[in-house]
Amino acid sequence: MEDIVYLPPKDLPEAWYNVLPDLPEPLPPWKDVESGPSRFELMKSVYVNKCLEYDENYKERWVLIPEATREAYIHAGRPTPLNRAWRMEKVLDTPARIYYKREGTSPTGSYKVISNISQAVWAKEEGYDRLIACTAGTQGSGLCYAAATFGMKAMVFMFASAYDSRPGRVLHYKQLGADVIRSPSDRTEFGRKILEKDPNNKGSLFIALQELLEVFREEEVRHSAYLMGSGNTHNILFQTVMGLELKKQLELAGENEPDVIVDCAAAGGNWSGICLPFVKDRLDGRTRTRFVACQADGWAPFVDGEYKYADMVPMNPLAKIYTLGERENPPQIWAQGLQVPWGAIIPSYLRSKGIMEARKYSEEEVVPAAFQWIRAEGYIPALEATYAVKGGIDEAIRAREEGKARVIVINISGHGYYDVAGYRGYIEMAKGRK
Amino acid sequence: MEDIVYLPPKDLPEAWYNVLPDLPEPLPPWKDVESGPSRFELMKSVYVNKCLEYDENYKERWVLIPEATREAYIHAGRPTPLNRAWRMEKVLDTPARIYYKREGTSPTGSYKVISNISQAVWAKEEGYDRLIACTAGTQGSGLCYAAATFGMKAMVFMFASAYDSRPGRVLHYKQLGADVIRSPSDRTEFGRKILEKDPNNKGSLFIALQELLEVFREEEVRHSAYLMGSGNTHNILFQTVMGLELKKQLELAGENEPDVIVDCAAAGGNWSGICLPFVKDRLDGRTRTRFVACQADGWAPFVDGEYKYADMVPMNPLAKIYTLGERENPPQIWAQGLQVPWGAIIPSYLRSKGIMEARKYSEEEVVPAAFQWIRAEGYIPALEATYAVKGGIDEAIRAREEGKARVIVINISGHGYYDVAGYRGYIEMAKGRK
């Protein structure tokens, strides 16, 4: 059995798919905040400008991928492989055909490299020579890789808690030549003030962004660009390359259409990238593909949130999104990357229209599924991706119960080699429970 | 530029290449030890019998790969990709065309999975239901993966020093469902005696093997098989799949023949796997391909050793090999996997005939090359593989100096995601030196 569907690099998609013109209506627009500095101005002062154009209901359905970007995609392992999970199928005794896309084969270990490469090419065109991230993990790897690839500088503000608990990531940034800063830091006035009051401050996205803005303000001539990892509309445009590859790979495997695509979701950027190229057919009534987003219990805006105008990254204007709102002491879960209290604009809209099917899982549900998967398929998923694995296994069991030979696709957004501490913590925890 | 040469799974080689009939003379045979239990008997009591057949100057040039083995190879990511290192070429400003084979794409992160899958299939045929390893790292991953793949049990004796310093590997064994034992252990009388005298004993291959033999002796009916990782003649047979793939990939890339193949070498099993399929052409005078083995300074039997009958794994009979002999306090190096004081039989023979070109590098030489590589190519090599990287870079520089557009192939035997501690240790060390 051909159980890996490779797409040769020459068949890498030549254009990204922009879903906006195919939606039944324009997306709800951004709104500026009522007090404080204009977020529109703030965005323009740090983002790559060409990216912002795409966030504003851009009209073209197909956006040509620049040659430098395609070349870098290929060097970073695209198209990524699509595996058939036939060993898992046997274990589950399901008539379903399970496929999984392996985004962990990239040099940075996750799909985040897509968006960073894409933004970096435009950043360079716009004359910037330094890329800056605020991150707890994979986004930093993607950014540092993109910077190294295009001969640019990289600066990473990493939340102190993540810096201390993820030595593998810190190392990776440094291997790639980046300037890595544990935030709050003594590099900025904002950071110094926090450290004075609280030397053990664990950092946060808010603090890191304030430090970053200070760095931008200090540039006499702007030469840096801030790159977002995943959820903005332009990030999602880039990430459709995953779904476009998947479409071709399913054809090569002789499948007409997937019955269901399952992915994990924090803000939903990754989920959008794999699903969007299949959404139009569903909207047009040509297919009945289901699009499942698996969230973490306690961090499931698409399940438990409210759809309304709200603040997300405190750098963007307000947007109509699913949000859990302000919470005191939100839960800590093993998959840090899923700890996001809101959805991005596109997936939120699709959720409101019933195109996204959302569910949430507890760690107790996810972990046994992850171990079952690793023993059957071998490849270790990132902690975040174990939620997709659990969702896919549930779909396969349902197919068995209903006696349907469904086609199930699971997107494995990254590998779990850097998640040793998380997995081990769980094994220790499980021992303690006995 | 097509910078990754994928070979579709259907083109995976159908047979392994056995070099023995193509050598100018039979390999020097094994000899039993003069005192103590017969090593030939010892081997038969723990190894897979079919493997031992191949160690005895087996005559057939091509050995059909069983269907179950091919299927498992494909599931484990074979054929592995061959990348063109054109970013590295630019940095080095070399006319050479550098290719690198990425064995780290397997679910266990290294080429060791090849030999384990291959042995496991035969072990199962011979009726065994448990696989046992004595290991410090990647061999355990390969064995546990093979066991999980074929529904067998896995038992790993891991040297205490490695158990304590490589939490990622321990976790990986456990994720795959193995019984992981820190050796010396309280599971065996041998282990208990050592722990009584020295509770902090760091373990060794010798101790682990004694514990393993005790486990075998306790089986009323033998149901376990001991799998070696890499260097035995049968391991090397299996590993030729790397070189056979490489041959097809170079053809696809439009290259006639490689001018030089560079690999790291501990005992030389990995080096043999990638090089042997090209050796016959060189022996016949049809090509002038050079085969470079890069060893670690302090652990370079092919450079500094003597070619003579000697003891290697204290389970095998004596063999004619390059050996550094007994040493007090051998040096510790960052790449633990290269800390082997002898060469395997086949590569030792080829070294004695001048087919293998051997060199050694210090950490100081290797580390800067590794960082240069990571920044250019993105993929993080295992610490062991950085020696191959250094060797390949040196060849590319030489090609520049001599103005030759040579074809250089580097074998990257594994990824470095589990080598965080080693890489970080070096960064810290470098800081201290400033």
Q: Roughly what percent helix of chain A?
A: 40-55%
Uncertain ranges of chain A: none
Mean pLDDT of chain A: 94
CATH topology of the largest domain in chain A: Rossmann fold
The level 1 CATH classification of the largest domain in chain A is Alpha Beta
Widest sheet of chain A: strand order? 1-4-5-15-10-11-14
Rg of chain A is: 21 Å
Total number of beta strands of chain A: 15
What's the total helix number of chain A? Answer: 17
End-to-end separation of chain A in angstroms reads: 41 Å
- Biggest β-sheet of chain A: count, sense, barrel? 7 strands, mixed
Find the biggest chain interface: A-B, 46 and 46 residues
Number of separate structural domains of chain A? 2
Which strand-content bin applies to the residues of chain A?
15-25%
Helix/strand structural class of chain A: alpha/beta
Please identify, by name, the CATH architecture of the largest domain in chain A.
Answer: 3-Layer(aba) Sandwich
